[in-house]
Amino acid sequence: MPRWLSALTKVRCVTSQFSVLLRQLRRQTALTQEDLAERAGLSVRTIRRLETGVSANPQLDTVRLLADALSLEPDERARMLAVADGHVPPDSPEVNGFRPESAFERRLAEATDDLAHAVGARLGREEELRRIQDPFPLPVRWQLAPDNVMDHWANICRASPGASAKPLDLAGRLPDIADVYRRIPSGRLVVLGRAGSGKSVLAARLVLDLLDTRTRAGAVPVFFSLGSWNPTTTGFRDWLAGQLMRDHPGLASAGPDGSNLATALVEAGRILPVLDGFDELAAGLHRAALDALNATTLPLLLTSRPGEYAAVAGTDALTAAAAVRLTDLTVTDLVDYLPRTTRKDAGATAWDPVLAELRDHPERPASVNLRAVLTTPLMVGLARAIYSDPAGRDPSVLLDADRFGSQYELEDHLLGSFIPTVYRDHHSRWDPTRVRGWLSYLAGHLDRLGTHDLAWWQLGSSTPRRSRMLVVGLVTGLVVGVLSGLLIGLVDALGGGSGQVAILTVPGNWLGFGLALGLAHGAGLRLGGGAYEPSRVRLHTRGGARQLRARFGPRLVVGLVGGVSFGLMLGFACMAGLGPMGLVGFGFFGGLATGAGLGTLTGLGWGLVAGLEAPVDIRSAVSPTDLLRTNRAIVVVEFLGFGLVLGVAHLMVLAFAVGNVVPAAYPLDLVLGPVIGLLIGTTLTAWGQWLVFARVWLPLTGRLPWSVTAFLDDACQRGVLRQVGAVYQFRHARLQSHLTD
């Protein structure tokens, strides 16, 4: 059979299968074609053409709209997408009967299972570091929230039209969260609570409990921090897919429709979003975020402070979502918990007098203030860290009414004492005073960026763009200038010269390369939207055409900008007789042509290498350190190779310009070329930005320590930071705010 006829037959089979499935699903939901068209935002004519098979090869965006309008379950949604994309064999049984799993569904199931393992392992480690179970979890409790922040119970319970529904009993404690969530037919729950009341702990426990009972290929509950989402620029599903690829780079692999696996998992309903921190969205975005969430039917859990959520939910609550509100800890909870966190001395603990005062004299001002503070797990956890340690201080100081005249002064005391307490270890390599300054810089950096995600590739990105270009130009240009001067001086000395040429070369190369690399860095920032993203890829002998198409153009432009900038300085240097790097450019235009040619060659080679970049394996564990190490390896391999090519190209330029090449130029170019290539990589990559700012500039100016990675990892071990996939976060938003102030 001719190839074109075989392809036509396949398209007809796919169209026929999709028509049958769409008609069947519409009838199951008792919708007319007009009803479905209205729900999906499509024309009735489009629905008719799809159901009769007149419209061949339905667009995936249209299929997604139909799946949302039909409120499909995850398995049904995955089947509909698979049929529309042609991943169901033409000879498979009817869609309403038994059907073997397609290759597409097997791949999604494997990716889902791998993701579930990675999510469970990370949250399990995080729970251990936070000592949630040591000696037992604080009794986080909740009650049903007021009706004015909830949707109708008929919508929550998915009651049929005209039917009513009774309120559900959703009160519970931390171990009950999974059972409570399963009672909600819509699968949508809002958890409200004050700062530090345990919302994040509850959300993480839900993820772990649901993973324990998850069936193979079932939806994976994934913990997302909402603070980085801008709903006015990024759709909810697109943001979910982007966060998945950030924390699990293997999901960037090509999906069934040419996009990626992360998008396919989201669209197929294989992700259960557990959204933490609705209140942490930037000011003015809460209404847009709620509207975006209401536009989907995805099951989800959302946490928020009551005020931020009530401000928008008062007019339009989260559709089909029940809501609960966390309650305060009681004195009995403190009596049961705090004494078991410290050592006994003659049968008593340091906490006993404090707790006796709270229980026996609750009316005294000191008891009132301390009781008001110790109503949230956050403050109880801080008090434990500061006063329950064997080397800790006497907690009776918390009852000093003269020193702490209000609950706010007590809270500031606990927040301010936390850092010195966790860094008071005499064997620590970090000075507690300097640690507070470093952490304050990081907190201010996040505040300027408007996010809670501390990404290593964004360190320094809160600095104005011009300043960043200047720093990059100074650092990289200085390296080239000094190194080239030393090498040229060595070559000149071996040839019997005076070394004068080396002195003249240093400023020309510093200025030329500094300007070129600084401007190239700025061009990369402009094209990349403000910050370089780390490469979530590995080098492979057979890459993909998709990466090549997406990355070739921007990389070529960056190379051209840097090359022309370098050519300008090279031309002026040649006119002045400096001859940087020994280039004989026949005056200004010769230098300009030489620089532009080398820049074009750099951009061309860097763009072509995109075809050799392949996504990492889904099962590979990802942490900030792992991602940093992977990016460093890629940059070194890619750009050292480019530098060698540049060195050879420079020799060819010299041979073309003067007809012969001095033998001493060979080692000069073959040594300096790879160094320049590596500096180009430093200028144009996330790892390079990390190297310049986090490893040189910020430590040099005292804002960060010299061993930044070790400091951040150590802060995680001490409970100050936490790892969330490929980024760090302050473990407590209140602590970040305190350090910012």
What this model shows, in words?
The N and C termini lie far apart (73 Å). A hairpin with a 2-residue loop joins strand 10 and strand 11. The radius of gyration is 31 Å and the shape is flat. The chain is built from 28 helices and 11 strands. With 741 residues, the chain is α/β, with parallel strands linked by helices. The strands form 3 sheets. A 7-stranded mixed beta sheet has the order 2-1-7-3-6-5-4.
Question: What labels would you give this structure?
Answer:
alpha/beta; disordered N terminus; single chain; 11 strands; 741 residues
Describe the structure in brief.
The chain is of the alpha/beta class. 57% of the residues lie in helices and 6% in strands. The N and C termini lie far apart (73 Å).
The spatial strand order of the largest sheet comes to: 2-1-7-3-6-5-4
Structural class: alpha/beta
Low-confidence stretches: 1-14, 89-100, 581-585
**Fraction of residues in helix:** 55-70%
Q: Describe the largest sheet.
A: 7 strands, mixed
> How many strands appear in the DSSP assignment?
11
Radius of gyration: 31 Å
Tell me the fraction of residues in β-strands, as a range.
5-15%
Terminal Cα span: 73 Å
